[in-house]
Design brief:
The protein has one domain. The chain is an all-alpha fold and about 140 residues long. It contains 6 helices and no strands. The protein starts with a helix and ends in a 5-residue tail after the last helix.
Length: about 140
């Protein structure tokens, strides 16, 4: 669903030409900021995986490992981090583009940034559930 929402938003922006209405320098700046945010979020997600690994001996995490929920959480964290990595690469490539490919790159940056951001909502909820249900042993 996140993927289709990202494509729909980018499609609407492209269809109505909203990127072409803005000065190129402003769009280029926004694309650069998207690359920075994607890199930061990639780092945060890697840190979240490290936190989970450091508390993996906790009773709740052991139960999650037994039921398969821990693997699901790690898989979703990994895919979200990979999606932010792709968004970062797309944005960096777009920053150096010139002419007509730049607008297509800006749309690709928009879609590739919305997708992991929507995935992050699910990850944040699951991570909150884990951290809020940890109790001292």
């Amino acid at each position: 669903m996140s993927f289709f929402l990202a494509l729909a938003v980018a499609g609407l922006v492209g269809y109505y030409g909203w990127i072409a209405m803005l000065p190129e320098q402003e769009v280029r700046s926004a694309v650069g900021i998207a690359a920075q945010i994607a890199a930061t979020m990639l780092g945060f997600l890697i840190a979240a995986m490290s936190i989970l690994a450091s508390i993996s001996g906790h009773r709740l995490l052991r139960n999650m490992q037994r039921t398969g929920h821990y693997r699901t959480l790690l898989r979703r964290l990994f895919w979200n981090a990979a999606a932010y990595g792709i968004a970062m690469v797309v944005a960096i490539a777009t920053v150096v583009m010139k002419g007509a490919p730049f607008e297509a790159g800006a749309l690709a940056t928009l879609a590739s940034f919305i997708f992991p951001t929507m995935l992050l909502i699910d990850i944040a909820w699951r991570f909150w559930l884990v951290l809020s249900n940890l109790s001292p042993e």
